Predict the structure.
Amino acid sequence: MLKEQSPSREKQPEIKWCTIMDVKEREGRLDFTDTEKTELSTRDIMAALEKGKVRELGQLDKLIAVPPHQNYISCHIVLIEHEDKRFLAIFKGLAGEGIGEVSILTYFVDREEKTLLQRAEREIANAKINTEWENVAYYPREVFAYMLSEKLNLGLVPPTALRTLRGKFPVYTEGGFKLVEGETNGALQVFLPFRTYAQLEREKKAGDLPQILLNNLEQYYKIAVFDYLVQIRSRHFDDFLLDTSKEESTIFLIDHGNSMLSESTKNLRSVFLRYFGMLNRNINFIRLPKLREILINLKENIQITLREQPEWFKKLIEDLKDLLKNKEQFEGEIKEKGLYGYGLLEVKEGIPIVTQIFENLKEIPQGARVIKLITREDLDEFWFRLEKLIESLENTGLIPIIYDEELGIIYPLK
């Protein structure tokens, strides 16, 4: 029996992404002044990411002045060449995931004052250890984030593909972390020539984020919907890019390794979900006048949106429903990409690499070392969130979350 086909939808115009064709190196750093840029279609970029020739330029934190951050030590800037196209990209490898400069708290006693004190020290470590992420792979979640953004016609996440590449990656030895050359799986993402909000804010060039969001409610809604669906664990000011070249700033979302994990759904952090989370509480008790004003304006805009039903809002809900209706197809695409299940982890040339994928734990050979990709539990909770989101948007225009002001944590509403 033939399955009933979904009614034909109006084809979306293909997004053109601004890319860097090449870059000069000056005093050991990449110099982005006067770089040659070009706009490429999603199709051309994805073809190059999946099949193009890759030349490694170096580690991200060595080539670009960036603040200390997890994963920078394992991220590589590469040059992609495919047919007549060339552009910069970032490779985030499985080897070295979670490794970077982190704060380590140590406690000591001040005997004179008879008090217990703590000291924060920075060192290279693996931030995954002793957390729910310890045996979880980041890279499938980077690719999933792009797939979801594309499926919902959001255009928020730069094109990202799954690749296995050779390079120097950090591994732990008895003497600490050292760089070892070998192959590993990872996410390859086009490098956009924009800076993070945090970078621009340090130079007083970012603009007021709440005002940026209120000026473009369509963009804000799409970002909030996206962050809720992937259950982002860490969306700080360093985790999104800002294109300020036009009158209205455009936001692009990056760094999605900390997402789509069923065990972490009760503890979310997102600068974009924060305001929506506050709207599900009594905003009259908000003490800060500026914050209360932001929330009042957002609430009024949401009420207008719900009442007038602009085309972008109707289309957003329509795309969400379409995804839910075609969930088997979407899951099939996730499996086909090699993002689903459990990866058999082997060490070759001193580098961890996923060599085989199993859909469930029962198939895995006894004693084998595995790492979680996107599992059945992760997807089941994703579909549950999607159903809840559609219902909430249609009835209230809100995202079904609440913000705990004391802990600074966002919780999904049950």
